[in-house]
Specification:
The chain is mostly helical. It is 57% helix and 10% strand. It has helices at residues 4-13, 24-45, 52-83, 98-133, 136-143, 162-167, 188-194, 206-218, 233-241, 253-256, and strands at 148-153, 168-176, 197-200, 225-228, 248-251. GO terms for molecular function: metal ion binding; oxidoreductase activity, acting on the CH-OH group of donors, NAD or NADP as acceptor.
Length: 260
């Protein structure tokens, strides 16, 4: 519509392309609003049942946003064809169709502005509500939403993977290399909405391991670890039993093992 459509309408109805640009803004807004709504659907779906009142209010706000968006969509699509189609020229006589076209333009511009303002308010309300339901860790994850192309999950214990899907960009990949003893809950909805992919792998052979190490060295990808000496092993085991560990222990055998 931006390129060929406006030019075709301009030639058919003897109008300047600048007079027809009001048609573009509603569609840009519709696309953006539907993108935001998809995200709110995913979050609303996973709101805890114990937050029943917040969930109901969340759904009410979504309903209002959808209703306004549908009104704009109908005006931009159906009424557009009624007043400014590709098959019949505008009639510029005193009682002709041009007057109705002018009224339609005023209506669409006004509806676009009103819908945009109202949708902005609803969006802010939705995100305020989301933040009120979140812990500090959740807020950190929310700030990172849709920022990563891929995640390698190395956790070998039971853990939620929904936050990881939220951090991925559309078409992002979550690769599981940790083996949890208990089955993980797989949230399908975020996979569908973002066309995201989940896969897995066990340890590779010598060749693949060396390729990985070479790649990591080339791009300065280093692990966060705690290097310990041989005489610290017993203390390390005690810390493990108390979950007093932030990074993986790495035992420096070469420098700390004493020869007999």
């Amino acid at each position: 519509m931006k390129e060929n459509g406006l030019k075709k309408l301009s030639e058919l109805h003897s109008l300047q392309e600048s007079e027809l640009k009001f048609i573009i803004q509603p569609w840009e807004q519709i696309v953006e609003c539907r993108r935001v709504l998809k995200w709110t659907y995913a979050y609303g779906f996973y709101l805890p049942e114990k937050e029943k009142a917040k969930k109901q209010f969340f759904e009410y706000l979504q309903g209002q946003a959808e209703a306004d968006l549908e009104r704009l969509h109908e005006c931009a699509e159906k009424e557009f064809l009624d007043h400014l189609g590709f098959n019949k020229k505008l009639d510029y006589t005193e009682q002709g169709s041009y007057k109705n076209f002018v009224l339609f333009r005023i209506k669409l511009v006004g509806l676009t502005e009103v819908t945009g303002n109202y949708f902005d308010k609803i969006t802010h309300s939705l995100f305020d509500l989301i933040e009120a339901c979140l812990t500090i860790d959740d807020q950190v994850i929310l700030a990172a939403t849709s920022t990563l192309d891929g995640i390698i999950d190395t956790v070998s214990a039971e853990h939620p993977i929904l936050p990881l899907f939220n951090i991925l960009k559309p078409h992002g990949k979550l690769i599981m290399v940790g083996a949890s003893a208990k089955p993980l809950e797989l949230p399908v909805f975020p996979l569908l909405m973002g066309r995201k992919i989940m896969g897995g792998s066990i340890i590779g052979g010598m060749k693949e391991t060396q390729e990985m190490l070479d790649f990591a060295a080339k791009h300065n990808i280093t692990p966060e670890v705690e290097v310990i000496s041989m005489d610290y092993v017993n203390t390390a085991m005690e810390r493990l039993s108390k979950s007093d560990v932030k990074y993986r222990f790495v035992l420096d055998v070469g420098k700390t093992l004493k020869a007999n």
